[in-house]
Automatic annotation (TrEMBL):
EC number: 2.1.2.11
Homology family: Belongs to the PanB family.
Residues the record marks as active site: E185 (proton acceptor)
Protein name: 3-methyl-2-oxobutanoate hydroxymethyltransferase
A UniProt-annotated Pfam family: Pantoate_transf
Pathway participation: Cofactor biosynthesis; (R)-pantothenate biosynthesis; (R)-pantoate from 3-methyl-2-oxobutanoate: step 1/2
Organism: Pseudomonas xantholysinigenes
Keywords attached to this entry: Cytoplasm, Magnesium, Metal-binding, Pantothenate biosynthesis, Transferase
Subunit structure: Homodecamer; pentamer of dimers.
Binding sites annotated in the UniProt record for Mg(2+): D47, D86, E118
Length: 269
């Protein structure tokens, strides 16, 4: 494994393809970002912030100012992992100019390394426009949560021939547009394998099989903080909810019984 004394860049991620699996998780806040920074190759400040941190119904409810605030918090407390910001719904679909203006704001005001866009063939020209103007773009294909209302729910993609063809075409269009990486969400294994094997850039999977060049999950999901609708593709690696509950219960009991605070927690006594 390569060790770096500086923050990883998108070219470091590119060099990892065929050499080592790329590790990634989401972070929206300082405590989580600090903990995962030394362990991850990149951190995504996902638009899942809207659901996970704010309890909203979908990622469509993420705002640009919120994206900037959360991404800046993650960049400011990390030094190892490449940081990628997820462009929120409505911040890049209107026109090339709108996409450039908002992506440039995110890069300039947060110091992050790249942006991620949910991008099918129709949006690939936007990706090309951004890349040609110095904005590194990761293209998110397959299950695109910002299209949830069109898809009629969060459904695995690439299970029929038509869907498999569409995803391969989306991949091809975004590769031709200059995306530095593809993120494949909820994609059937044969399709994910085909795209990973036929792409020169790193393909990162979430619910898209081990055939991908790396994996990403929502951190809260793998820690057991994800709630009842955690997707099937998540593996829970820890039960942090139980740890939080036990700690908070002990605190509440101590307060109720006058056991906390003790003299060492007080001033002037
Ligand atoms: O918003 C997000 O967290 C994402 C991941 C699910 C990849 O896009």
């Amino acid at each position: 494994m390569t060790t770096h004394t500086r923050r990883l860049t998108i070219t470091d991620l590119a060099a990892m393809k065929h050499q080592q699996k790329i590790t990634a998780l989401t972070a929206y806040s300082t405590p989580i970002a600090r903990l995962i920074d030394p362990l991850m190759d990149f951190i995504l400040v996902g638009d899942s912030t809207a659901m996970v941190a704010y309890g909203r119904r979908s990622t469509l409810a993420m705002g640009l100012e919120e994206t900037i605030a959360h991404t800046r918090a993650v960049v400011d407390c990390t030094q190892h992992a490449c940081v990628i910001a997820d462009m929120p719904f409505g911040s890049y679909q209107e026109s090339f100019a709108q996409a450039l203006r908002n992506c440039a704001r995110v890069l300039a005001e947060t110091g992050c390394d790249a942006v991620k866009l949910e991008s099918n063939q129709a949006l690939a020209p936007t990706v090309a426009f951004l890349v040609e103007r110095g904005i590194p773009v990761m293209a998110h294909i397959g299950l695109m949560p910002q299209f949830v209302n069109l898809m009629g729910g969060y459904k695995a993609q690439g299970l029929t021939e038509t869907s498999a063809t569409t995803i391969k075409q989306d991949a091809q269009a975004n590769l031709a547009a200059g995306a530095f990486s593809l993120l494949l969400e909820g994609v059937a294994e044969p399709v994910a394998r085909y795209i990973s094997e036929h792409s020169a850039v790193p393909c990162i999977g979430i619910g898209a099989s081990p055939a991908c060049d790396g994996q990403i999950l929502v951190t809260e999901d793998l820690l057991g903080l994800g709630g009842p609708n955690t997707p099937r593709f998540v593996k829970q690696y820890a039960d942090v909810a139980a740890v939080i509950r036990a700690g908070c219960e002990r605190y509440a009991n101590d307060v109720r019984q006058g056991e906390f605070p003790q003299p060492q927690h007080c001033y002037g006594c």
